Amino acid sequence: MAYYQIENSLMPGRYDCRRYVDFAFSTHLHRHPELVIALSGEIVLSVGARTETLHAGDAALVLPHEPHGYSTPAASEVIVTVFSADYAGDVFAFLRGRHAVSSVFRPNICDFEYARVVLEAEASSPYRRRAALYALLSAFIEQAELVAGSETDELIARVLAEMSERAGDETLTMAGIAEALGYEKHYLSRRFNRALNVNFRTLLTRCRLDTALSLLRGGDLGVDEIARRSGFASLRALDRACREATGRTPTQWKNQR
Questions:
Q1: Residue 83 near residue 16, CB atoms below 8 Å
Q2: Tens digits of per-residue pLDDT, 196-207?
């Protein structure tokens, strides 16, 4: 069963790049896209029911909310970059509602080497990072066979969009979204749980926390008001969700700006 990775789903402006040796990771999913470049060896990537192998010089793009995992048959070294879609908003607007037959692609050597150096360098400016990401994303789009998402993909995308837009409504429920989309509640709930392996209430809480953390880090609202605007029933509810997901209190997040 896939699990929802909260740290790679929170807040716009997220950027996290790490190098791994003999990379392996159990099946998971998250809101933000993920780029992998293979430096050496072989890495097996599973995306949903599909399994692919990356060799040295290959790259792969995992799209938002795609269940995926990794394993290394013998030895490998990779760079994994998770970034929020606003780093390349036009690209992900184009990709919305589409899926690739294969996640793996082969950048040209210049783009590969530029990305290898720039993406993991702490001193790289946001502009250089965006340039490296765009170079790889352009190669992906040029090489990928893109197909329309399935009926299930489209339905789940609509549920996630409704959830994101209405997360600040404290009364929001699966029943309310089902009614808005014209589906029966239990049918939609089963489709949602089967597709994402996470229940609606858990994901809604994480979506609300995403909103709260953005407000905590980017404005002058009081914590009580942030809890209300994010859809939490009380400051206590926000505090509990924040501690469980991040290990910090809302006040600590606000003070670290």
A1: yes
A2: 777 888 888 888
